[in-house]
Design goal:
By secondary structure, the protein is mostly helical. It has one domain. Helices cover 67% and strands 0% of the residues. The longest helix is centred in the last third of the chain and has 18 residues. The chain is elongated. The two termini are 15 Å apart. The mean pLDDT is 85.
Amino acid sequence: MTKAVALLLALAMLVHIIKPLGLPGLRQRKDAWKIAVAALIVMTVLVGLRPG
C-alpha cells in the first residue's frame, strides 16, 4: 500500500511540474513542494498505522 501511495504522489509531482494541476494552492510549478510535504505526512501516517 505504501509503495502505491508513494508512486501516485511522485507521479502527481511530476505531472504538476510539467503542467500545474490548477487546484487551490497548486496553481504554479513552484508549488510542487506542497505535494512533497503531503507525501511525507501521508507516508508517516501509513507507516504508523501498519501492524507489526
